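Posting for a labmate who doesn't have an account.
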Amino acid sequence: LILFCSLFYSWLSQTASAWTSNRYISSCRKLSSISLPAFDFSSRAEWDKFYQTEEETSQEHVEWHSSIPLETISSYVAPDSKCLIPGCGNSKLPDTLLASVQGVRISLQDSSPICMSQMEKKYGSSIKGYHCGDATKLQDQFPSLEEKFDMILDKGLSDALFCDEAWDFWISNLLRGASEILKEDTGIYLLISYKLPKPTQEFLQELGVEIGLEWTFDIPLVSNNR
């Protein structure tokens, strides 16, 4: 599922009926051939173990929601834009962005130091920033931005947070932080995730009214039934 979210502050708090709600959906590939029984997708320790296992078994990468082509995601990124990929993992999305979006400036973020070390080794200076930390505290990782982000690309990060019993707390923190580092009026949060149940959509909409995020679900020609 991909959720398309734009950031604005003008009159949203007074006009709850102003935003619309659609959904964007994709499917997800299995985790290569790695066996990870009872994997806790919301655990940082589990993800460190995952990336270490990949490194030791020479697994190249895992592409979450692989049924949505990376080129399709890249088509929503404007030239010369400043983009953040939180919970980036070792996706090849940066490769596609660098190859297809002129002048794009990418920053990568993940909670796993092993993952971030692998990504920095792979991309070097072609990526503008590598940030290892908690994605639910983005405002703390980017406390004094001279230029806020044009787009945040969430490809599977929220799926991991949804696995926790306190998912509403973590998602709320993630989006509150995102709203602080996105450009006002023009900033976009693009969420690629599984299909969300109606109560979750309503939660995102209510939170959006509070923090200035206008959600659009089901972007045409890209969504599927998952």
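Reply:
Got it, the structure tokens are right above this. The chain is about 35% helix and 15% strand.
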